[in-house]
Every structure is written in structure tokens, then in C-alpha cells.
What we know:
The complex is a heterodimer of chains A (241) and B (454).
Chain A: E1 2-6, H1 17-26, E2 31-35, E3 50-53, H2 58-69, H3 72-81, E4 84-88, E5 98-101, E6 106-109, E7 117-120, E8 126-134, E9 137-145, E10 147-150, E11 162-166, E12 177-179, E13 182-185, H4 191-194, H5 196-207, H6 216-230
Parallel strand pairs in A: 1-2, 1-3, 3-4, 4-13, 5-7
Antiparallel strand pairs in A: 5-6, 7-10, 8-9, 8-11, 12-13
Chain B: H1 2-25, H2 33-41, H3 45-48, E1 54-59, H4 64-77, E2 82-84, H5 92-101, E3 113-117, H6 123-127, E4 134-137, H7 145-148, H8 151-161, E5 167-171, H9 175-178, E6 186-192, E7 220-226, E8 229-233, E9 246-252, E10 255-260, E11 263-268, H10 274-289, H11 294-301, E12 311-316, E13 319-325, H12 330-342, E14 347-352, H13 356-361, E15 382-388, H14 392-402, E16 409-412, H15 418-421, E17 429-434, H16 439-453
Parallel strand pairs in B: 1-3, 1-4, 2-3, 4-5, 5-6, 6-9, 13-17, 14-15, 14-17, 15-16
Antiparallel strand pairs in B: 7-8, 9-10, 10-11, 12-13
Helix pairs in contact in B: 1-2, 2-5, 4-10
Amino acid sequence: MKIEVLYPELACLYGDPGNCLFLRRSRPDAQIISTTLGTAPAFPSGAVDLVILGSMTEHGQQVVAPELARHATALREQIERGTHFLFTGNATDLLGTSVANPQLGYEFAGLGLFDFTVELGMRERINSKFLGEIDHEPIVGFKSQFSHVRVPEPHKLEFFASTIRGVGLCAGVDEGVRMNNLIGTHLLGPLLPLNPLFTRRLLCEIDGVDTPVAFEETAVGAFEARLAELRDPRIWGATAH
Amino acid sequence: MRVVAEVLFFIALWVSKAVGLLLRLLGKNATQLPGRIAIIICPTFLTRLRKPAHIIAVTGTNGKTTTANMITDALVLLRHQVTSNAFGSNLNHGVASALLRDATLFGAARRDYGVFEVDEISVGKVLGPVHADVVVVTNLFRDSIYRNAHPGYIAGFLDAGLPDDATLVLNGDDILVSGLRPSASKRVFFSVSPLPGEPPSPPNLVIDARTCPRCDAELVFDFRRYHHIGRVHCPVCGYHSPSADYLVTDASAGQLTLETYGIQSRYPLVDAGVTSIYNEVAVIAGLRELGLKSEDLARALARVHVTDNRLEVIQAGGKRIVLQAAKGTPVAASRVFADVSAGPGRKAVITFLDDAHDAADSTENITWLYDADFELLVDPSIAQVVVGGKRHLDFALRLDLAGLPAERLVSVLDPKTTADLIELSDIDTIYVLYDLFNGSTAHVIGQRLKERLA
């Protein structure tokens, strides 16, 4: 398996490098490619199985967006071919049509893969726990973001997970986006070690091998403990967060 | 209108002073409520209240409490009268409470110096009305994800809130700090030269200033002490760490040697740890910029003692038990792990770093675990790691992923039972690392270890 991590020098916030760590331990033979800014990514060649982009600063988004835009055509081609992509945290913002930061006075174009816009509320941070489902299997995580997503009505978005408790992509809709094998989700955790059974299914989808992920017993124990807590209405207090 | 404002100010002053007096009579600290009440009654209270003639403020992620306390101690030892918020909140309410406690009934300052620790996000709110002569910024690191997001976000608050008319004393080895408020009338930088025996480029996961603030190219570290602390340059545009106005050239044999504007001077070394050296040079630079003389400072520093409330060492059965608070944030925890890893002899570690509040009634956001250097606990000198608490399986997984062999890892729900799970033979030191608000459980564990070693 070949995994490409995009711009790790910038996209390394909020524990998201833990996703790659978990993959590396779960597939010790996987080849990990770290692509830094200014160097040509490997995924356009079609030889990469999974492309990862994690959380970054708001300035980092402004740097990464034009860099990714240079490879937008190849990105679309690879999505159509079925290459897997995992964008976590505010990397998801870049998949929409635009990102605006009215407080700091800037706006830039996203990749335009999905019909949503993002407004960064620098004084209105969303902090939330999350409980959802994918194909009736639970998924858990956390959110901590300035990103406020606006989805037009009607929309044709395919979501990543249904929202049971917590905040979805925006109020009243489910969480994240999906297009073929591209996943964009604001869920932090990091997502993969927090959801070992989802990771197992994801890896099996990529290489066809259904084998336990790294330290699966411990990881599933931690997952089940968190799931039980998230299913307890008392921890949600008066709000959904 | 002005008369109304004046009347409101005096009502606020007298009411809040009465509340403070009442709280103190009841044995309470009165370190926040009086200031809060004063600001509610008179929103311009902090602006109107007369201040000490000389004010120094300290902010930054780590070390601000220690630095501010050392500054206060040095000033007191030099027989100055000091108002400080040492025992209270570092928000505007805490600063107001400290100032009004030491104010006369007519609002005049009774002390000649003010020393205030200020929360990074509150810098604008505090240093707008309280005109500091000198502001020290210690460093900027990742902190609470929910409140502080990332250091760049906090740098934005500081950049906007730091005053132009104060002398800014900035950590020149922290590129996130040294670039702050370039419009300030005077900025001076402190730095610590590479010291003998320092490992080059320690393997930290979090290095938050990897790209040039001017052109976004990847920065080159000429020297990296830990995380992003060190000296950098940009190979593309030439941006580089600033030259130091206060440069520690040596810290050994109980002495700190400082080069200041080309002149070498020596001070007593308060503590030889590298973070303590940063704190001390920040203290010296701050007070020198406030106008104190080098020889007076040296005299005061000889008598300053840093008491670390977060560290307790117990001797039992010929072994050491170290109870150490390790704030559940990536860099603070990593610094503690580095100290444990570098500590002498064979070691065992007990950790229960769950956030006490979240453990009680929520589920903790554990993203910080994947930013913290748990890999340091894999060091072969650490024979065993026992993790306890509600999130013990998350910690166990993180340690598994860090590469800790299964036979050296024990995980258990009840932290109080961790002491019984430690293999004591062949161990010189047992570290008990706990979250700031779990101190009482740490002492229970320490006591049990002591009993076992008796």
C-alpha cells in the first residue's frame, strides 16, 4: 500500500498526524510518502492508494489552497478512478467553493469539489463531541474549528456520516462529505485510532485484506468506552455539544 | 457625563473594596470577585484607577507564573513596594482585584511597582487600560485545543493587544514571539546560546514554526533546543531569528553569564534547568529594561528561590518517588516526559493525566495525546509504565503506537491501584505524573508507594 501525506509541515495540527501513525502501525509494509510544499505530489501518477491531508492553521489554508489548486485536475481524475482521499479537520474546508475570513478580511477559492462555502469565525470557535453512524456502524470524534460551513438548499451533497449527537457539517445536516472514495470530515480525534473498526474497513476497502488493525483489542476497548460515554445523554448537558 | 462616570468609579471602588474586605474576613482569597464587581459597576474602572509608577507585565504560554513571581520577589528583596496578581486570576478581573486591594480609598496607588501575569488572550483587555512600561513574552506553544486553538491564533491576540509604547521583551529563540508587534517603539530580545551537553534537535512531534513568516518557505533550524525553540533562518528570503540583546552565553557552576549590548555580566544561577534559564534571563531583561541596575539585580537573584508546587520528591526505602504535575497539553507534557527520560538511573512511571473535569461529567477530547512525545517514555531506562484513569486505554494505545513493548506497559481504570502494579525491584525512581487537578490522588499513590518501600 502506498500512502501519501500532503504538506505535513503545515497540516499537522490537533493530533491529526496520529492518523498516519495508526496506518503505519496497522500496515507496516505500507510505503509512506511525505510531500512538502513546493514539491510535486505523487498521487497524480495514479500510483497512490490513500492520500491524507490534515488540520492546519488558517494561514496554512491560504498556503495549501493554491498549491492544491495546481493539481485540481489530477485530483478530480483520481477521485473518479477511485483513489482514496482522507481530508480531516479544516482541510475539509478546501474541498468547498470558497473560504472567507471576514474578521481578518480575506477570501480564497476552494477546490470546488463540493457545493458548500466556509466562513471562518475567529471569535466563534465550534467545540463539540460527536457521535454518528456510517452504514449503521457508530463513529465517534471531536470537533474544534473556526470553520462555519454553509450548505445551500437544495443540495446534492453525499455526507460522510449521519449525525446522532453533536454538530454535523453545519446545523441540521449530517457530518462531512463523500465523493467516491474521497472523505472530508471535520472530525478530530484523531479519526482513525479513535475508530479502529472504521479504519479496519477502510484499509480492507483499499487493499482487500481484512486483518486486525494495530493493537486492535486496546483500540476497540478505548472506542467502546468512549461510545458508551457518548451514548449517555448526561454528558451532553443542555446543548447538543 | 464625566461627573456620572466619576461617581460610578468611586461607587465601584468602595463596593469592591468592601467585598474584598468581607471575603478576606471570611478567609477567602478575594483575587477575582472584587475586580469583577468593580468592572461591572464601572466598565472603565481599570482605566480610571491610578496605577503604580512602574508596571511590568508577563505573558506567554509557559513560564509566565514563575517569571512574574521571580520579578516580584526580586523587587521586594530590593525593598520596593509591589502590587501583583500572584495569588489570583491573570484576567482583567484579577489585575483589577490586585490593584484595588492596594489602592487608597480615593483610588491612588499605594505601591510603586506593579507586576502582572496576563493571560495571552486577555493582553489587549488588560494592557489597554493598564499601561505597562515593560511587557515580557516568554514563549508560545500549543495549549488547550478548545480555548487556544494553535499558537498562531494566540500570536494574533498578542500582536493586536501588545502596546506600541511599552518596551517589549521578547523571546528571541521563539520565532512565533520574536515577530510580534513590529510597530512597538522598542523591542528587545533574549536568547540562550547552545549549552554544553544539549542534545541537537530532539525528536519532538510538534514543531510549530516550520515555515517562514515572511515567504512561507521551509525554515532551516541552525539550532533547535526543543519543539520550535531555537535559531532559524529562511534559505529563500533571508528572514532569521533576531540578534539577542540579552544573550546567555554560559550557565554553569552556579553562575549565569549574560552578554548585554556587548557587555558581559554575571548573575547567580537560580536553577540550572534550561526552562529555568529562560525564565531567569526574561526576569533580568525585563527588570533591566524597567531601569534596575545589573548589580542590584544580581544581589536580589542570589536570594530568589523558585518553589515548584508541581513537583514533590519523596525518599523511601532508598528510592525516589517524584510526584509531578504534567499539564495535559502537548508541549507541557512532552517537557515532563523529556525530563523523566533524561533522569538518572532505572525508572518506572505512573501516569494518570485524564482531565479531571471531563472525567467527572464528559468525555475528554484526547487529540493532544497524538501531539505529545510519548515516544520519550519508550526510553530503555524506563522499565515500566503504568497508566490509570478513565482514559487509560487511550493512553495505552498511544504508548503502544509509540513503540513501548507490551511487557513494559500496564493499564488500569482505577488510578489509585497503579501503585500496587509497579515492579519495584531494580528501580531507582518512580515518577507519578498527574493532571493539575488530580493532586490528591497523586498523594494517595505516593503514600502507597512509600508504604510498599518501607
